[in-house]
From TrEMBL:
UniProt cross-references to Gene3D superfamilies, sorted A to Z: MFS general substrate transporter like domains
GO cellular component: a single term: membrane
Pfam families: Sugar_tr (PF00083)
Disordered, as annotated region: 1-45
Domain Major facilitator superfamily (MFS) profile, first and last residues per copy: 74-249
Name of protein: Major facilitator superfamily (MFS) profile domain-containing protein
Biased composition, class Polar residues, residue ranges: 11-29
Places the protein is found: Membrane
Chain ranges passing through the membrane: 70-87, 122-142, 154-172, 184-204
Record's keyword terms, sorted: Membrane, Transmembrane, Transmembrane helix, Transport
Length: 249
């Protein structure tokens, strides 16, 4: 018995095409792809995506509004997240002796004696290395959060970790607690680890194919800009002083 079903797409002589919305069924529309080494295949495209497919692209280019939204999203993601990795990486190098002096003064106020050189070196090493440990933890948990809450929402929620880190580090001197600085550095590492895992992924998914390489390059460029900025701000001419280093961190 002859099959009475007819595909929506006909040959080139047919007047039926996807450009006409009247010819699209209510439930779904069919598009047809041809493989070089095989017969034609038909795949289903949801009808609600029809308007986005036809309106989002004109002659292979995004509309002006789509381009504007893409640029704003890339800038917000780059300057709001990856730059923090660079800042936290480079900002403690220049004011190292100033912060060590804070460690020594805090130890003296607690125990009535100066801290030993070996112990001071160990505390400083812990302060620096905890950023890397936090980054490892953040990178491990990032995929789970991204899969559950989505890329964008994970990046937004990650800002609360960054704010908590800044608050703890900034209040360390006033509280006379170098432990707060160490824990704050670890939280900064967790925040940076999440960003390093989710940031490039989010940029790659929202960017068209032609701009994915550009978006990935901007992500890495933002990190290096953060390192340079952190190094400059940490100099004694700016915020790397005994009075202003809490603002730096």
């Amino acid at each position: 018995m002859e099959d009475e079903r007819k595909p929506l797409l006909q040959t080139e002589d047919s007047s039926t095409s996807l450009s006409s919305r009247d010819n699209v069924p209510n439930s779904e529309l069919y598009s047809r792809g041809i493989n070089d080494d095989g017969p034609a295949r038909r795949k289903k495209v949801p009808r609600q995506d029809f308007d986005s497919i036809t309106n989002a692209s004109e002659n292979g280019k995004f509309q002006k509004t789509s381009q504007t939204h893409l640029v704003l999203t890339i800038c917000a993601c780059i300057f709001g997240s990856p730059i923090q990795i660079g800042l936290n990486t480079g900002m403690l190098n220049a004011p190292q002796e100033v912060i060590k002096s804070f460690y020594n003064q805090t130890w003296h106020d607690r125990y009535g004696e100066d801290i030993e050189g070996t112990l001071l070196t160990m505390l400083w090493a812990v302060t620096v290395s905890f950023f890397c440990i936090g980054g490892m933890l953040g990178g491990l948990v990032a995929p789970a959060f991204a899969g559950r809450y989505g890329r964008k929402r994970t990046l937004l929620l990650n800002n609360f970790i960054s704010l908590a880190s800044a608050a703890m580090q900034g209040m360390a001197k006033r509280s006379e607690s170098y432990e707060m600085l160490i824990v704050g550095r670890m939280l900064a590492g967790v925040s940076s680890g999440v960003v390093s895992a989710i940031g490039p992924l989010y940029l790659a998914e929202i960017s068209p194919t032609a701009l994915r390489g550009f978006a990935g390059t901007c992500n890495q460029l933002s990190i290096t800009i953060g390192v340079v900025t952190g190094q400059l701000l940490g100099l004694s001419h700016f915020l790397g002083t005994e009075k202003y280093w809490p603002l730096l961190v």
